[in-house]
Structure formats: C-alpha cells, structure tokens
Amino acid sequence: MEKVVKVSYPLNKRMDIDIDGFTIKADQRVEAGGEGSAPTPFALFLASIGSCAGVYAKKFCDSREIDTKGMSLDLRAIYSAEEGRYTKMIIDLHLPEGFPDRYKEPIIKAMELCDVKKHLISPPEFEIIAS
User: Fewest beta carbons within 10 Å, which of 2, 18, 38, 75?
Assistant: First the structure.
C-alpha cells in the first residue's frame, strides 16, 4: 500500500498539504521568511504525535465506557541546544475526573501503541528524488 501526500506552494512560504481528500495549511515563522499564517511543518509533526497518542487514550476509554469529559493531554517537546534538536517528548495525559486508578498503567500502555511513535522508534527508509 502506498500513501501520497502532495505539497504545493501557493504564496511566499505558505504550503498546501493535500492528503486523503483534506488540505492542511502550513507556513514558516515570520523569522524564517514566512507570514506565520499557519503551523510550521514541524509543529504539525508534533501535533501528529500528540493527537495520535490521544486517539489511543480515547479509544481505550470508549471501549470501557469511561467518560472522557475533561480528559486532555499535553505534549512537551524538550529541545537540546547542544544537539540542535528535540531530544525528549513527554506526553502528559490529564485523566478525567473519576478515572479508575486500576486503568492508569493500561491506558499508558495503550498510548504506547501510537502509530506515529512506532514510526519514530523504527523509522522508515527515506529516498529523495527530483523528477
């Protein structure tokens, strides 16, 4: 199976990213020559990690009929100036009121199944071509 993502550049540093019938907008920060009109590609990458983990948490709760009202999560990306990259991601799941203690470890294990995280742990091969 192959998935195709199409990126076009409508204006300045703005990007239209077409995938699965949706168009996602991206831009560069003003300091990088963009207009800051949309998230940067890296911000979208971080959002994909957090939202993927959140999907697994939500699915865990739904399968056990646990109310998710008030549940949220924060993804904190820790940057190392020495390495020039983010070296740690902390996903902090804020559980809904009344969440059963016995499910804390299992929901964390469920979130570990996130497909985005799996691709970071065992990254795909990259090939870049120009046609």
Answer: 2
